[in-house]
Amino acid sequence: MGMNKNFKLFLIGIFSIFLTLISFTQTASAASVTIGPYDFNDGITNWNQVTSGNQVANIPIDGTNLQLGYAFGLAQDTKGKVSTGGDTTITSDSISTGMNVQYSKMNVFLNQNGNYVSSVFQGGYSSTGTNRQNVSPTSPDFMIAPNGPTSLQGITAPAYNILGNPSGPSNGTGNTGLVSKKYYVGTDANGHPAYKIMGHFTRTNNSGYKNGTYDLEIEILLRASPTNSAIVQREMYVKNLSTDTAEFITLFGEDTKLGDSNGLHNDMVPVYDLGNKQGIYVQDTYSGNNYRLFVTNNMPDGFDSYIGQIASTNWVDKFGTVTGSGDEAKDNPKGTSLTGFGDSTYTLKWNPTTLKTGETAHFGSTMGVTSKPYSIMTPEKTYTNETRSDGTNMVGDKLKFNLKITNNGYGAKWNYNKLVDKLPAGLQVDASSMTLSNNGEKPQPLAESDYDATTNTITVPPGISLTDDQYATISFTATLTKDALTSSGEENTITNTAEFSGIDVGNNETVQKTFPASVDIKVQPPRLNYSFIKQVKKHGDTSYSQSIDAKKGQVVDYQIIYSVASESKDSVNSGATLEDTLPAGLQLDTSSIKIWGPGDPDSGGYHQDHINTGVNAIGKGQRVKVEFSATVTASSVGKITNTATMSNVNTTGNQYFDKQTSTAADINVQNVDAITKVPTNIDFGSTNMYGQNKVLHNTSTTGELIVSHPTNTPYNVTVAYDNDNKDSQLINSDGDTLPSDATGLIFIKQRTENDTDPGTWTPITPSGTTLQSDNFTDYSSAVNLTNYIGAGNWQLKISSATLPGAYNGTLTWGLTESV
What does the UniProt keyword field contain (predicted)? Predict the structure, then answer.
């Protein structure tokens, strides 16, 4: 908003005089409150109070010229340059009149070569005397409103923002706001600065505005996202100090603008939907640069609803009422305009909150501002409990994890090279459940060898490229085991962190960056404290383990133990069934089967010719044990995974389990040296020729390239293509083929000795081209070479004479041995 905002201020000022005649219906406590830096558990442990003025932080985007800045208060000088701080008004009493809210304001901006690029409307910076009070004056930031009817004026900034008007009650709203402010500076685990303002918030309900009576301690916090992306988290913590229960709805509103913060330039930009109900974005061009601002709920306690609307004194105008649904309810696709052209704003809204005396709540949103052609990667790790839906997690529950990374960049391209998820103790992965989905497409199964049971680590080379708003999701299931509890078997919280790595090739970067994402899992001990373990060993060995290497013809021994801990609250009733069906590649020796019942000593047990057996009651401290042998019959390399199950399990505490699954016992079959997995599709996308020759790079590779080579001799992998062979040549539905010249048609980036080499573009020949010039010397049953053939590792030279159509062809893979 510009000059028209000053006119609106005048009108509201007249109306507020009338409202002062309305009586107050309730009075908030004004008792003195002691504010301390650790009153809220915000995760920062090194807070220091600063009274000399604000500080300004910057997060690198491209490492040289572009940064994302954040601060409370002023962050630019009178020439529009990014400053280093010194604004001493950030803890001054705020002023809320008309449409404006001043002082203690959140300030997120773009630092481009030292120039301040605003993300919200600013009141100008050329005047030394007024620039501190002009920091985002028309943005209310956080607001609190009752969960019920409001006045005809709706949710206005002076009556509902948390900063309020402590020194000037004449605004007639009863909104005293935040007093006794303190400003703190700290650093997060990644070394990024964190800033917060804390204070005592009070409001006395005004019968005209119906804005509620509250007595709260509040912390507003700015910090960098822990994901290492150029994203800032804007957060608020609230504690109810009143003896009465506090009920409210939290909102956050800003008046968007992109560009120079002086004047009205770029104030009238549309607001768009990000899609997937995750937030909004704004984009515009200023001074020859293309900018994009985005706001998401991709963080703990993110917002539930949002709207984009043309500027109004009522910040929930488009919601209808403060309890109404927003644009998220329409499930808009990405790019849907929410405002049209005009003086745009947006409002975020959280579901209603109820706090008893002394209880706290947390609210947050993420904000990023970027410019073409930079990638802003946003990683997420989430889970759902597939066993129960009551919000609790117990030992034995199956959790489904989704590891998602989205490119929120602008004109960007990011090559997704690696995902590493080292799971904590207490999570038992089902390797057969691992899948990869590229931008919402049908999930593709991943190789079970991508999971290392010894280290409990998943390592996946996705080999895909993500452009604007595209995302990739890796999913898997895992079972909670008692290792997730404390050493004494009590409730515990485990943290699982995944790391997403890739290169911002759209910005011509060559160094890989890693973006972490974590999720906390609170685990409760079950009433039935049990363990269900299956292990394997080579026949003749003495110790069982979760994984062994074996060859065709070898005999392996399995052991299954289901036990109930002596400290368990419940035990297992009789009637359960223990089952184990061997997968293909194993031949059961029925004469080797031995079973020990719950009361049988280790010297006892009995033999039978089948594994499946009914189970008597298993008391506390008792176990059921099964041992048997099998011969490896698999004629190809790969992993044979086997689990046992207990079905129809009823406990003495009346709990029922339809099926419980043991830990997995793996056999890595090492019969021969061979390629065990090849990609199913290499996609070069589409293009318009315009009568010109073109060179295309592949945008994605579906599937992995995995080699089994336990033999201790050097080897190499080749890929071949014959453009003259009708069985393999690229051809469209009309029978047209791709013409090629003497240099070749398809090229691969051939490395020298590892996948991190820059590589040389080498034509793929009919006789085969090696992936690297040196031989491979990694001798194991699952050598993953996907990083050699992922996105950006293939070239296709297209002649101007190429006819239109969708072309498909076949590559041939080979394994060569050094002699």
Answer: Signal
